[in-house]
């Protein structure tokens, strides 16, 4: 039987030479693969209270929307700077070279709400680390972070677990 990992395509040298890009569009395009991924992203939290699903731009929106629908809960986007129309709070985080900024609407999560974070891929953990700070600044309680792919050599999982997060990954790939 095919696993989630079997549906993911690898494209060499995208977007830069030397990067093995883990392309989840082939997983999303397969009805069975997509459903399997959504079910497995949620599995550790079956039966737990979750109030909001937070998805990280961009592929986390696709996953977060499907999960929010499955749970009949609200979906909240965390976006790159300048994309959200309302009042936002911002959080800078480190990239390989330089810095980027993620934002969330300041009324998107109420204090005490239980939040699940979802994204397609965990690399350095910088993006999710910024999301954690934004959600906690709004008073949200993070129940966990769920990803399709982990790149263990980049250390994101260790970083998030060091922050006390429960981390669920569906598969791992070697290299960056
Ligand atoms: O753990 P990190 O090192 O922070 O990397 C993980 C992030 O990188 C990718 O998104 P990317 O920043 O390429 O943006 P995109 O989804 O908008 O293309 C991926 O979808 C994660 O969101
Ligand atoms: N190898 C990779 N494939 C897809 N997205 C990524 N984001 C960071 N590294 C990546």
Automatic annotation (TrEMBL):
Record flagged with keyword Secreted: no
Sequence similarity: Belongs to the purine/pyrimidine phosphoribosyltransferase family.
PANTHER family to which the protein is assigned, alphabetical: ADENINE PHOSPHORIBOSYLTRANSFERASE
Pathway of action: Purine metabolism; AMP biosynthesis via salvage pathway; AMP from adenine: step 1/1
Keywords: Cytoplasm, Glycosyltransferase, Purine salvage, Transferase
UniProt name for this protein: Adenine phosphoribosyltransferase
Entry-linked Pfam families: Pribosyltran
EC category: transferase
Reactions listed under catalytic activity: AMP + diphosphate = 5-phospho-alpha-D-ribose 1-diphosphate + adenine
Primary location: cytoplasm
UniProt keyword Oxidoreductase present: no
GO MF annotations in UniProt: adenine phosphoribosyltransferase activity
Annotated source species: Rhodobacter lacus
Domain of life: Bacteria
CDD domains: PRTases_typeI (cd06223)
Taxonomic lineage from the root: Bacteria, Pseudomonadati, Pseudomonadota, Alphaproteobacteria, Rhodobacterales
SUPFAM superfamilies assigned: PRTase-like
Enzyme Commission number: 2.4.2.7
Gene3D superfamilies the UniProt entry points to: 3.40.50.2020
HAMAP family: Aden_phosphoribosyltr
Location within or outside the cell: Cytoplasm
Location of the Phosphoribosyltransferase domain: 43-153
Role description: Catalyzes a salvage reaction resulting in the formation of AMP, that is energically less costly than de novo synthesis.
């Amino acid at each position: 039987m095919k696993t989630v990992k079997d549906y993911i395509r690898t494209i060499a040298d995208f977007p830069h030479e030397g990067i093995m890009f883990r392309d989840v569009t082939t997983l999303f395009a397969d009805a069975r693969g997509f459903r399997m991924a959504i079910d497995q992203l949620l599995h550790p939290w079956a039966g737990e209270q979750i109030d909001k699903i937070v998805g990280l731009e961009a592929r986390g929106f696709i996953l977060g929307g499907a999960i929010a629908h499955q749970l009949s809960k609200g979906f909240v986007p965390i976006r790159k700077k300048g994309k959200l129309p309302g009042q936002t709070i911002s959080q800078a985080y480190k990239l390989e070279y330089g810095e980027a900024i993620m934002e969330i609407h300041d009324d998107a999560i109420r204090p005490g709400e239980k939040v699940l974070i979802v994204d397609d891929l965990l690399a350095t953990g910088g993006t999710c680390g910024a999301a954690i700070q934004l959600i906690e600044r709004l008073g949200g309680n993070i129940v966990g972070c769920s990803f399709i792919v982990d790149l263990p050599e980049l250390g994101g999982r260790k970083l998030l677990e060091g922050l006390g997060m429960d981390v669920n990954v569906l598969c791992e790939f070697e290299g960056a």
